[in-house]
Amino acid sequence: MSQTRPSNGFSTVSRLSPGGALPPDPRTKRREIAMFLVLAVLIWPVLSVAVVGGYGFLVWMSQLILGPPGPPPV
C-alpha cells in the first residue's frame, strides 16, 4: 500500500515534534504581535470613536426632526 505525500515534496511527519504539534515559528509570532499592536493601537480606538460619534450624530439628527426630549410645551 502506498502512502500519499504532500504536493510540495516535504513530509509533514518529519516536521512534527514528539507531541504532534508543529514547532513555533518566530516570524509567525512576530507577525501576530504586530497585528495585535495594530488592532490595539490603531483600529479599536478609531472604531470606538466612530461608533460613539455616529450615535451622537444619530441622536442629534433625531432631535432636529422629532424635537427635544421631554413633555410637550403647555
Helix content: 55-70%
Q: Note the overall shape.
A: rod-shaped
> Approximately what portion of the residues adopt beta-strand conformation?
under 5%
From the N-terminal CA to the C-terminal CA, the straight-line distance is 92 Å
Q: How much is the average pLDDT?
A: 82
Give the C-alpha Rg: 28 Å
Low-confidence stretches: none
**How do the SSEs run, as a string of H and E?**
HH
The largest sheet is: none
- Assembly category: single chain
Question: Helix tally?
Answer: 2
Number of strands: 0
Put the structure in a nutshell.
With 74 residues, the chain is mostly helical. It has 2 helices and no strands.
Defining traits:
mainly alpha
What does this protein look like?
The chain has 74 residues and is mainly alpha-helical. Helices cover 61% and strands 0% of the residues. It has two helices and no strands. The mean pLDDT is 82.
Strand and helix layout:
Elements: H1 12-15, H2 26-66
